[in-house]
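ping. complex inputs:
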Amino acid sequence: MIRNKKFNRRKIALSGQAIHTNRLILKPMTLADEQGFYLMRRDPDMMRFIPIGTIDTPDDHRAEFTQQFHENFEHRFKFTYGIHLRSEADMIGIVIMRPIPDGSMIEIGYWIRKGFWGNGYAAEAQKAMIDEQKESLKCENKDIIAYVMVGNSASKRVLEKIGLTLTGTDQLESVNCWVFHFPKN
Ligand SMILES: CC(C)(COP(=O)(O)OP(=O)(O)OC[C@H]1O[C@@H](n2cnc3c(N)ncnc32)[C@H](O)[C@@H]1OP(=O)(O)O)[C@@H](O)C(=O)NCCC(=O)NCCS
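pong. complex structure:
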């Protein structure tokens, strides 16, 4: 039976346009962002609340990133923007807005490289991303969901700062997560 998904990863996409905020430039991730991604993937503090491990060597990372970029584009990178500062050569983070696997909701998410934590960049990037991409994804605030590994208080705070509230918990691939939504009106 073919299910008619509300948000189908194959049929929808982000705008592809760069987004400029007060301090940040958000733009589609490309293979050139491999180094910026590695600077996050190698750091155990970064990966503490992400259910994938660290990658220790640049060569291993380059190989995995290149393979994943091509093989997983439709499910991951197509819905990911890099977060850039004018002063930094490599991206300082990523911001995601993509349909969840059953197509019922749009999931949001973000990483900021550790050296840049605590400047409000995650909240600034995610808010701009939602404002700009809702039209491209044809979604509204009520369609947006966020999953945060239980205990990730910094991420919880980011979501609260941009207006979402904790609505419950769920198991995602055996990981206990807090679930967040925008309040209904
Ligand atoms: C979560 C993360 C994206 C936050 O990035 P950031 O740019 O530092 O976030 P912001 O500066 O916008 O906001 C962080 C807020 O959390 C607060 N915070 C930081 N550490 C905290 C902690 N341990 N407990 C509670 N609050 C905390 C900050 O004070 C700030 O709130 P404030 O502005 O009211 O002071 C960053 O820590 C990160 O990339 N972590 C690793 C990847 C990750 O966990 N991503 C989220 C997956 S759901």
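The pocket of coenzyme A is lined by residues 46, 49-50, 109-112, 117-123, 148, 152-155, 157-158, 161 (CB under 6 Å).
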